[in-house]
Amino acid sequence: IDRQAADAARARQDQLTKPRGSLGRLEEMAIRLAGMQGTATPTPDPVRILQFVSDHGVSTEGVSLFPREVTLQMLHNIARGGAAVSVMAESIGAVMEIFDLGIATDPGPVAGVRSERLAPGTGNIAREPAMSDEQLARALDIGRAGVDRALDEGARLLICGEMGIGNTTPATALACALLGLEASILTGPGTGLDAQGVSRKAQVVATALELHARPEHGPLELLRRLGGFDIAASTGAFIRAAQRGLPILVDGFIISSAALVATRINPGVRDWMLFSHGSAEPGHRHMMEALDADPYLHLQMRLGEATGGAALVPLLRLACVVHQQMATFDEAGVSKG
Amino acid sequence: IDRQAADAARARQDQLTKPRGSLGRLEEMAIRLAGMQGTATPTPDPVRILQFVSDHGVSTEGVSLFPREVTLQMLHNIARGGAAVSVMAESIGAVMEIFDLGIATDPGPVAGVRSERLAPGTGNIAREPAMSDEQLARALDIGRAGVDRALDEGARLLICGEMGIGNTTPATALACALLGLEASILTGPGTGLDAQGVSRKAQVVATALELHARPEHGPLELLRRLGGFDIAASTGAFIRAAQRGLPILVDGFIISSAALVATRINPGVRDWMLFSHGSAEPGHRHMMEALDADPYLHLQMRLGEATGGAALVPLLRLACVVHQQMATFDEAGVSKG
């Protein structure tokens, strides 16, 4: 982080023709991006979305409203432009790279999708580790390589997204393990479970925690045992983004679990993160507290797919345009009060 | 409001390829606009901003951090593109009409500004009514005519903005009178007063209330006595917009006082209102409660000038694009769960 650039941006905000601080968190957005990008002219553009699609073994435990086939169906829908994130990415002018990290059924070649299949879904965390050491290493690498490609193509903001039926369950389990919280505290309805469904899901999370959450396990081992290919790839992407100085916009519940792992592995990663929105999934606020994060939007979103991140982009853009283009008191001949 | 169009929009949201309700308040934005516009394809575009600039007699009471000349200086700054709202309007592609409703010093002809001067500022509400009956009638008319011009030019969303040193004071007094609240409850720092300044301002508001707030006065008479040209023009604009079916996006503290007056004059106006943001000005939440409003953004903004409204426009746009362009479960061959 370039403290000088951040300080200069803050000083400029105080010279712009408005009462000091009156643009609130729009000022903060510009200042934080200026510090991360080391420039007086911060911008989120070009925005890169890495969309990680994969299946989760635990989906066979009845933890979601939707059947497992939906992951595959949604991969096609995302690639063909019909999913929420597809429409949003197009609308905000973001480039999206879509990954098949391991859907239960191999879709074969799909236009616009990178096939980086690690397995036909992860292991069922209620019975076994989500992945092997090798799969974990490869998932982290896929995320890293995605960031490197993004930077090669000029990206100035990274958003990771995910789609995978059942994936609030590993995200919940992983967060419980990292934060030392009971399953019942963090488990929520995901795509829309009723109270009975949530209770069943909490039981599945508790079983997974009993099996895998040991004090001797560090964050990487917990990620391997309780995570998913999507969460692991996002973790790798976040660590790499921080290493290479690419600002990260953290999306909702599942991606926040990756943000937690990444900051446990390397606390310095936190400095490179902005947080788009508070998810309607109730456990998300515990993750935000643990990350000392105060997300910008509170719109009861709970879709994933990077849609919360995408929704914040126009505001980041507005914050940066205002920062660059507003007149100062001197330029405009306005009295400072 | 076209309930059928709103219901159809809600039904469509439930068919889109996402868990039901998972886009949260983005869904609500599209549904509400669909109902107001009576269409399956709602959109905020073209956006029209009516920017009302005027002076307030009460500014001589030392209720603002900034000297009175700043209103005139900011008129030029807004017109020349240097103000926050100028940059935002350009960035979001909104057409802005700028009005001089009565700055203390007549600026003469200014490119891009409509001169509709009612007086060199309003009366000082701590000593006299803000305006005469005739001035009130003309201010309301100016707002109405602005809406008619906007509609002639195809506008589909109205935002009123204001700039005028000291104008949180009349807005506070007016809201106190309408809501039956003490000056000390609603008075806040405005552009940045310290505690002593706020206390002095609350005293000015209390004096104005003592002079003007009588049980026999209806909302129009309170507007005449305690308001401002900006607040009155916005009130006229809101009533006209509702009459002609133009959706209203209510900006921050000052404009919310106009929204209060408009809904007291005609409660049906409320149906045509969306609320952009919760202002950092503390009294704003009382206004929002009275309007049964739950604003979308909470970014600690407190600038006025329609900047909160402008900030929400990209999200309204995104909500509408998603509503129109996402695939349904049937179209995408995705299982509904």
The total domain count of chain A is 2
Query: Could you please say which CATH topology of the largest domain in chain A applies here?
Result: Rossmann fold
Tell how many strands the DSSP assignment of chain A holds.
6
Mean pLDDT of chain A: 97
Instruction: Give the uncertain stretches of chain A in residue-range form.
Output: none
Q: Write the element-wise H/E pattern of chain A from the N-terminal end onward.
A: HHEHHEEHEHHHHHEHEHHH
Oligomeric state as shown: homodimer
Query: C-alpha Rg of chain A, in Å?
Result: 20 Å
The proportion of residues in beta strands of chain A is 5-15%
Q: What structural category arises from helix and sheet content of chain A? A: alpha/beta
CATH class of the largest domain in chain A: Alpha Beta
CATH-defined superfamily of the largest domain in chain A: Nicotinate-nucleotide-dimethylbenzimidazole phosphoribosyltransferase (CobT), large domain
Major sheet of chain A: 6 strands, parallel
Instruction: For the largest sheet of chain A, list the strands in their spatial order.
Output: 3-2-1-4-5-6
What is the general shape of chain A? globular
